[in-house]
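input
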Amino acid sequence: MAQSKDQRVGIFVDAQNMYHSARNLYRAKVNFKEVLKAALAGRNLVQAVIYVVKSDVKEEEAFFEALKKSGYSLKMKDLQIFPGGMKKGDWDVGMAVDAISMAEKLDAIVLVTGDGDMTPLVNYLRHKGVRVEIVAFGRTTSGKLIESADEFFDLEESADKFLIK
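output
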């Protein structure tokens, strides 16, 4: 199934993955409003969810508010800090559960992440007949994830549009 304007689309964004990719590749931040437009591609948005990790810094509230104004529903969890100082804050399982639970109501699912751990999710959704697209920065995206998807949109091809420097 190719993209078409009448598709019902769900967009699921891994904010941490995208943040670190933009920072490491460009020393910049992601323009999530533009990413949402590109991911939607003029189709019918059912839901756009962005998964964020709270680390209790001042700038965070303004960032979260901007995401809401851009059209996202936010799902938040606190940053875990383990004895010894190791930090963890990922939403892989939460994103996967949400995508699977919404799949019957959607024609296409867009995962905005380069995380190769999402490959089994992509394979499962495609097996269920859902079109799956990946939107991410090509150099930090798993090759297996790209191969498993119906389509890959490389943000690096128009990086200036998707970055805030």
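quick obs: The chain has one domain: 8-164.
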